[in-house]
Amino acid sequence: MARRRVPRAAALALLLASATACANDVPEAKWSNGLLPDAITQQGETVTALWNGAWIAALATGGVVIGLIVWACLFHTRRRAKADLPPQVRYNLPIEMLYTLVPLVMVSVFFFFTARDSEELSRVTGDADVKVKVEAFQWSWRFTTTTADGKTTEPVSGMPVSDYQQGPQLVLPVDKKVEFDLFTDDVIHSFWVPDFLFKRDIIPGIPDDNPGRKFEVTTLSKPGVYAGRCAELCGVDHSRMLFSIKLVTQQEFDQYVASNQAGSAQ
Hints:
The protein has 266 residues and is an alpha+beta fold.
């Protein structure tokens, strides 16, 4: 029985991995981005730079450590002709300072860049060209868009779907600053667009004026349709809580707002 279970388990694992890889809402990972997808916002490019910098530093540190280990194994092995212990180094102040200061400097550098980029990702200026109220509920989304000149679109609301292209779609212009205001009235959700390289939890009960409800991005000139989903297990249909973001030119966005403006006759 045990021998028969192992191949079955392996086949099931392979099937699950294949099904996950074939999901149509998974963006293409690129080696040049450290296996991250291409970002569609300026903030996403910041995340990519921080990610790649951390990997480069980690690989460089690993290379130095492995090199020292190999060097010690090759040139400091005990020779059979000599039974004596090699010279012992104790209380070497320069060496002790070196292995104390180097990690301290490395951690300080990591902390500086992480704190700098975290501050940039969480900055909300309040002067965005487009403001979007995102309402998460079990188990879909409602988007209401407001432009800088006060025009508000009819809310776009959805239902649980199996394909993100069938879910509610949020239309945004390229090369513009967009502010998101996140709200939920039931359970914790998480607003995640993989191509943003960023996600933010949506927690019920947070007041309107709390900065934790908002974040801001600046879209890049990359028109297209991008998948989004809830990244927090929120109930039965969590996996079907899908949506899409469509980046369009400013002209197309103006036409969209005019034809979907709240209170219009169209």
